[in-house]
């Protein structure tokens, strides 16, 4: 990148500067801290220079957008073509209420839908199950059967929107419902587009919405991937998620490293099931967090993109360029929001949005400023969406591709994070892969240690968090918070009773028996799941079929 | 004899919510403050939590909820503790809990609610003071 | 205080939990209760499970509980985890792996921290076992982490001790402490689906055989394989435990061993009681500090001084 002679001069000059002006100023006015670190604990130097890019090779490190190793982005024109998809995760209460919110968001210019399900749905329980007590409709919409799905997408043509569903353990069931609904609307599977999260490993690591032991869970994951490859070509079959790993307390590098480690496991499982890497890899997508330290986040995204491309090419021999691309959705950091002085969160989210845009994401959900307090109100959701629009339309961040490339600091940080990712991948490989590393509690422990370190930094005031440990003030309690109707469970229970009375018991029973049969073989379960949801079997009933066969996962907990 | 009483804490996540960062963090903080902490993990019913408190002869039950189910779960735990003759067990809660719900939870017998951003040392101090005065 | 002992004998779980706390705290009131409970003990069979961290002991214990429950037995569990030597606190994580038993009134699980007092912990454990025994549990399982010398002492409170090993943890026969071989009545190689399991089995078997030649023991510890998470090998393990039990019973060993334990326990109680009383007398009046001053200044020697003190307390021995 730089001539040797030039570097030599810079080195001499920098030494002079360090010993001269810097030392002089520091003697009089010491720096704020002895060491500066990012929120993840990455050490940050006073100044970055060409010396930090001494053996920087443009071709191997960066290349061009849309070309290997994709450091600068996965499309040739990026946001000059079109902005990232602005996709707000929404869902609460009944399918009817959520449908209204969706139609409102579509009217406001949102371009994709994102479904949040309540915890019973995510855990494969019907609303009237004992464990659903208190949870129905709380953190998302309650979906028990295809009837609810029909209400959820009322007046929304499924060939005109793309839908992202945050669903993992029962992903096959919810996708089956969506496909059954498409069929009802007369939309062919080939025109249906969207994403299911379908990432069971991070549920086991840190999010807790698992049902079955890892191996049968992985089988469901791969069944879905395989089925979509054959029948629903526009569907993104998995969203390998670092988001929750970061929320659980990991560093930026750990978020990327553990997500890539999980990704490697999924790719290997598909290959083990006889799939060609280039057949399914183009539909893999990722999901990350964005915190407020803009440049660290940008470096994380760039490092991750580069590392994944190398993994796919060198480890798995993928040839299709689309197989090498790390395409990803971002959500701004939920845990970065404060309940104190909630309006400050608007600023945090704006910076996180900027980081996402500079980082080259394919889609983004911005959190609402009131989310540390409750489910977001409509006003807060609108501000969150407007934040994206301001960054996209006004900031100029979307007008040139990867504008931070070549920054001494950003390139050095990108290299630093990539090296950390590589370190973790090698460690996990040596342990025998992610499943073993999870079983040993290694991944969980690494994340918890980071969470603990961060908390200590906040409490010792080593790290300033505005409104938490500095610039605090007395505030009146917040008002105007959105509440879910506490009678939610009764409403859903009534609906379930009606469904069970109305449906044809014969075809319902036959469909569940067929599912049981198929699940005990190596056959793909998806067609049988689709038949079962059409016969109006519920999420809980379908998941129970598998509970009987495979049992339930009991995590080892590591504190 | 040199016997010494130690504060025994049950840390539990009631309901289906899987976000256990806070619960695990506190478990560790409590242990570092010299308490003996039994972490029960995810998906605990009020019955399971109270059974653990009973068998472990717990002094404190810590409940964490981020999914909005506190109004159902926290009072239910207090109620079951009473039914089992464990009314003196200190119940504290944390997570995402709107201020307006706090008075109701306190009326139901939850000793304190610690919202987001609470210093862990404040929680430790609260518990320790409760037991030093007794 | 209420008569917790009577309540325990009437089946109060709360009272059992309370007395255990008193025992843990070395509260003098515990002895009174233990005294009333003692006549009702001696019925439970005590199973010890010990092994290094990461061997899957808790999961294995969970499966053993399930089998015992299927057979209609009631079960008590003491799960011991280490206290932090720096803070005195402890994270007790075993319970979480035994949640299959949640909601079953016939299973009582108690987590216990070592409280940096391993020597005394064996006694505490023995007392906790008695409380569960007196309560009426058919089986009491004692699960301890690690196999250091002090854990060996705790394991001695069991009738049958199972030592759990797992491949890939650096658990080799070479690294096993000598004491472990002595306490193991059975070996379990858990996580047997992992590579290295078979060679670990062979290694342990060879060692057991060598030892049995040297010691001419009449019981040779069998080596079993389990995959606790998959519930593989639990039933055969229970059979092996039953085998050992009937061996102990038929050979008269159970009676002999329990008598020896009773002797040890009583002796240690006696020692503690005596030394407590004496030390109170000696240390109570400040003269002891004066004596130490003299010894430090070499005006007196500790050997003669100790004899003199004992002489004043037990004059007839002189």
Q: Distance between the terminal alpha carbons of chain B, to the nearest Å?
A: 20 Å
> How many strands, which pairing sense, and closed or not: the largest β-sheet of chain C?
7 strands, parallel
Number of domains of chain C: 3
Shape of chain C: globular
Largest interface: A-B, 44 and 34 residues
Task: Report the CATH topology name of chain B.
Answer: Rossmann fold
The percent range for helix content of chain C is 40-55%
Question: What would you say about this model in short?
Answer:
Chain A has helices at 4-28, 58-61, 95-107, 119-122, 146-152, 171-185, 200-207, 214-231, 243-247, 252-272, 277-280, 294-315, 321-324, 344-359, 378-394, 408-431, 434-439, 442-459, 488-502, 505-519, 526-534, 539-550; strands at 36-37, 43-44, 85-90, 112-116, 162-166, 193-196, 235-236, 238-241, 284-290, 328-332, 363-365.
Describe the fold and architecture:
The complex is a heterotrimer of chains A (559), B (134) and C (318). The two termini of chain A are 47 Å apart. With 559 residues, chain A is of the alpha/beta class. Chain A contains 22 helices and 11 strands. Chain A has 2 domains: 55 residues, no CATH class; 398 residues, TIM Barrel (Alpha-Beta Barrel). Chain B has a single domain, classed as Cobalamin-binding domain (Rossmann fold), CATH 3.40.50.280. Chain B is 43% helix and 18% strand. Chain B has 5 helices and 5 strands, in the order E-H-E-H-E-H-E-H-E-H. Chain B has a 5-stranded parallel β-sheet, with helices on both faces. In chain B, helix 2 crosses helix 3. Chain B starts with 7 loop residues before the first strand and ends with a helix. Chain C contains 12 helices and 8 strands. Chain C has a 7-stranded parallel β-sheet, sandwiched between helices. In chain C, helix 2 packs antiparallel against helix 5 and helix 4 packs across helix 9. The longest helix of chain C is centred in the C-terminal third of the chain and has 32 residues. At the A-B interface, helix 4, helix 7 and helix 18 of A face helix 1 and helix 3 of B.
Topology:
The complex is a heterotrimer of chains A (559), B (134) and C (318).
Chain A: H1 4-28, E1 36-37, E2 43-44, H2 58-61, E3 85-90, H3 95-107, E4 112-116, H4 119-122, H5 146-152, E5 162-166, H6 171-185, E6 193-196, H7 200-207, H8 214-231, E7 235-236, E8 238-241, H9 243-247, H10 252-272, H11 277-280, E9 284-290, H12 294-315, H13 321-324, E10 328-332, H14 344-359, E11 363-365, H15 378-394, H16 408-431, H17 434-439, H18 442-459, H19 488-502, H20 505-519, H21 526-534, H22 539-550
Chain B: E1 8-12, H1 21-32, E2 36-39, H2 46-56, E3 60-65, H3 70-83, E4 90-95, H4 102-107, E5 112-114, H5 120-133
Parallel strand pairs in B: 1-2, 1-3, 3-4, 4-5
Helix pairs in contact in B: 2-3
Chain C: H1 4-9, H2 13-24, H3 29-37, E1 45-51, H4 57-70, E2 75-81, E3 90-92, E4 107-113, H5 118-135, E5 139-145, H6 149-155, E6 160-165, H7 178-183, E7 186-189, H8 197-215, E8 223-225, H9 234-250, H10 253-284, H11 287-296, H12 302-313
Parallel strand pairs in C: 1-5, 1-6, 2-4, 2-5, 6-7, 7-8
Helix pairs in contact in C: 2-3, 2-5, 4-9, 5-6
């Amino acid at each position: 990148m730089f001539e040797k002679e030039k570097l030599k001069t810079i080195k001499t000059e920098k030494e002079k500067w360090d010993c001269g002006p810097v030392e002089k100023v520091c003697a009089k006015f010491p720096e704020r801290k002895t060491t500066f670190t990012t929120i993840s604990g990455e050490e940050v130097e006073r100044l970055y220079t060409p010396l930090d890019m001494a053996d920087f090779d443009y071709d191997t490190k960066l290349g061009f957008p849309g070309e290997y190793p994709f450091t600068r982005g996965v499309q040739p024109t990026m946001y000059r073509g079109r902005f990232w998809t602005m996709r707000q995760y929404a869902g609460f209460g009944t399918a009817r209420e959520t449908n209204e919110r969706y139609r409102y968001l579509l009217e406001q210019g949102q371009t994709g839908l994102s479904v949040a399900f309540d915890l019973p749905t995510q855990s494969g329980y019907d609303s009237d199950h004992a464990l659903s007590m208190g949870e129905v409709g709380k953190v998302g919409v309650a979906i028990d059967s295809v009837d609810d799905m029909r209400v959820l997408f009322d007046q929304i043509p499924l060939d005109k929107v793309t839908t992202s569903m945050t669903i993992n353990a029962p992903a096959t069931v919810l996708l089956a419902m969506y496909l059954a609904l498409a069929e009802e609307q007369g939309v062919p599977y080939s025109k249906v587009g969207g994403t299911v999260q379908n990432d069971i490993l991070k549920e086991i690591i840190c999010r807790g919405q698992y049902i079955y032991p890892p191996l049968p869970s992985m089988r469901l994951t791969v069944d879905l991937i395989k089925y979509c490859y054959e029948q629903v070509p526009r569907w993104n079959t998995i969203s390998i998620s670092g988001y929750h790993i970061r929320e659980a307390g990991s560093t930026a590098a750990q978020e990327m490293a553990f997500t890539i480690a999980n990704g490697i496991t999924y790719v290997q499982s598909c290959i083990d099931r006889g799939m060609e890497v280039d057949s399914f890899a183009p539909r893999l997508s990722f999901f990350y967090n964005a915190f407020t330290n803009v440049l660290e986040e940008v470096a994380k995204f760039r490092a991750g993109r580069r590392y994944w491309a190398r993994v796919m090419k060198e480890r798995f021999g993928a040839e299709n360029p689309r197989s090498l691309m790390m395409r990803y959705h971002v959500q701004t950091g939920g845990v970065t929001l404060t309940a104190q002085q909630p309006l400050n969160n608007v600023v945090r989210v704006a910076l996180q949005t900027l980081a996402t845009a500079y980082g080259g994401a394919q889609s983004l959900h911005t959190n609402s400023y009131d989310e540390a307090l409750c489910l977001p109100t409509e006003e807060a959701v609108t501000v969150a969406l407007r934040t994206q629009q301001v960054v996209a339309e006004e900031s100029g961040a979307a007008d040139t591709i990867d504008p931070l490339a070549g920054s001494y600091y950003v390139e050095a940080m990108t290299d630093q994070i990539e090296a950390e990712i590589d370190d973790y991948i090698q460690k996990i490989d040596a342990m025998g892969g992610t499943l073993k590393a999870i079983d040993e509690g290694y991944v969980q422990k690494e994340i918890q240690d980071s969470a603990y370190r961060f908390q200590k930094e906040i409490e010792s005031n080593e790290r300033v968090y505005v409104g938490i440990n500095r610039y605090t003030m007395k505030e009146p309690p917040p008002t105007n918070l959105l509440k879910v109707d506490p009678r939610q469970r009764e409403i859903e229970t009534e609906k379930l009773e009606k469904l069970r009375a109305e449906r044809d018991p014969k075809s319902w029973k036959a469909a569940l028996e067929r599912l049981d049969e198929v699940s005990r073989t190596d056959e793909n379960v998806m067609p049988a799941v689709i038949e079962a949801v059409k016969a109006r079997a519920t999420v809980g009933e379908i998941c129970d079929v598998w509970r009987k066969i495979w049992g339930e996962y009991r995590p080892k907990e590591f504190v | 004899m040199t016997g010494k009483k130690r504060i025994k804490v049950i840390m539990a996540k009631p309901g289906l919510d899987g976000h256990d960062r806070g619960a695990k963090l506190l478990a560790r903080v409590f242990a570092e403050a010299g308490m003996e902490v039994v972490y029960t993990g995810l998906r605990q019913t009020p019955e399971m939590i109270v059974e653990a408190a009973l068998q472990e002869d717990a002094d404190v039950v810590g409940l964490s909820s981020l999914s909005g189910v506190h109004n159902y779960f926290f009072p239910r735990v207090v109620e079951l503790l009473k039914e089992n003759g464990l009314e003196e067990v200190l119940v504290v809660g944390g997570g995402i809990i709107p201020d307006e719900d706090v008075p109701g939870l306190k009326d139901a017998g939850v000793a304190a609610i610690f919202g987001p951003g609470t210093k862990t040392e404040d929680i430790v101090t609260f518990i320790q003071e409760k037991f030093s005065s007794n | 205080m209420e008569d917790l002992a009577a309540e325990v004998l009437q089946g109060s779980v709360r009272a059992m939990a309370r007395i255990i706390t008193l025992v843990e705290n070395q509260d003098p009131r515990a002895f009174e209760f233990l005294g009333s409970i003692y006549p009702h003990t001696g019925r439970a069979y005590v199973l010890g499970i010990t092994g290094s961290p990461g061997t899957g002991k808790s999961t294995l214990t969970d499966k053993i509980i399930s089998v015992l429950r299927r057979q209609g037995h009631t079960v008590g569990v003491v799960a011991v985890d280490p206290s932090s030597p720096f803070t005195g606190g402890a994270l007790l994580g075993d319970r979480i792996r035994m949640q299959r038993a949640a909601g079953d009134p016939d299973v009582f699980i108690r987590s216990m921290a070592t409280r940096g007092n391993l020597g005394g912990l064996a006694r505490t454990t023995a007392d906790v076992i008695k409380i569960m025994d007196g309560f009426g549990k058919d089986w009491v399982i004692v699960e301890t982490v690690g196999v250091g010398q002090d854990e060996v002492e705790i394991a001695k409170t069991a009738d049958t001790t199972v030592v759990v090993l797992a491949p890939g943890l650096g658990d080799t026969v070479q690294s096993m402490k000598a004491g472990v071989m002595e306490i193991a009545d059975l070996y379990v190689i858990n996580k047997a689906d992992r590579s290295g399991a078979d060679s670990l089995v062979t290694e342990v078997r060879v060692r057991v055989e060598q030892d049995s030649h040297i010691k001419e023991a009449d019981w040779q510890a069998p080596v079993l394989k389990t995959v606790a998470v998959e519930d593989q090998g639990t039933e055969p393990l229970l059979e092996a435990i039953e085998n050992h039990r009937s061996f102990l019973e038929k050979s008269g060993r159970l009676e002999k061993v329990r008598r020896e334990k009773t002797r040890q326990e009583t002796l240690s109680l006696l020692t503690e009681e005596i030394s407590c009383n004496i030390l109170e007398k000696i240390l109570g009046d400040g003269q002891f500090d004066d004596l130490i001053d003299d010894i430090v200044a070499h005006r007196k020697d500790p050997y003669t001084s100790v004899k003199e003190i004992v002489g004043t307390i037990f004059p007839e021995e002189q």
